[in-house]
Amino acid sequence: MKAVRRAVLLAAPALCALASCGISTTGVVEAGGAASGVVPTIQVYFVAGDGTLVAVARGAVAQVDIESAVAVLLEGPTEAERGEGLATLLPPPDLLAAPVPAATATNGTVAVPQEKVRTADVVKVVTEDDRISIELTAYPVDLTGPPVDQLVCTALGAQRVAEPGAEPLPVTVTGPGGQLIEGTGASCPDG
Fold this sequence. Notes:
The chain has 191 residues and is an alpha+beta fold. Helix content is 28%, strand content 17%. It contains five helices and six strands, in the order H-E-E-H-H-H-E-E-H-E-E. The strands form two sheets. The chain has a four-stranded mixed beta sheet with strand order 3-4-5-6. Strands 1-2 form a two-stranded antiparallel sheet. Strand 5 (171-174) and strand 6 (180-183) form a beta hairpin.
């Protein structure tokens, strides 16, 4: 009993010291939305070894929109996904870099650096009330079959996340030569 009384007597001053350490109360501090723990996920579509489309879930770092989903698609599969046999038939934007003229160096040589090409420089995504348009301004891609399906399915998957319950919009993919392909998502596997 003496040990218990002694512990209480020693703890009481420590609790008083902690309670009066000079920190004032603040009340509720507003600092953004509630933490939900749910990371938005988009589906990007790659091609398996047998030529079929495969949906791959990717966590989004921000609000999901169609343009960012297409940008993620154009980055291509990760090393692990390539190890699983997944590929893309769309070249990444950095392979389309064009030489940029540079000043002549003092030794008479000309350095020709590669300019970093951004996705927005070669792909334009526009979402309207009745259509999704994807314009490939500099892509040397055959706009038939799997490459177009990759774009259409990824765009429609992002639309489903951004606008749950909305009717899927038709997707128009336009190539550099003006070639127009309409997509409805009929060839998209379930994600």
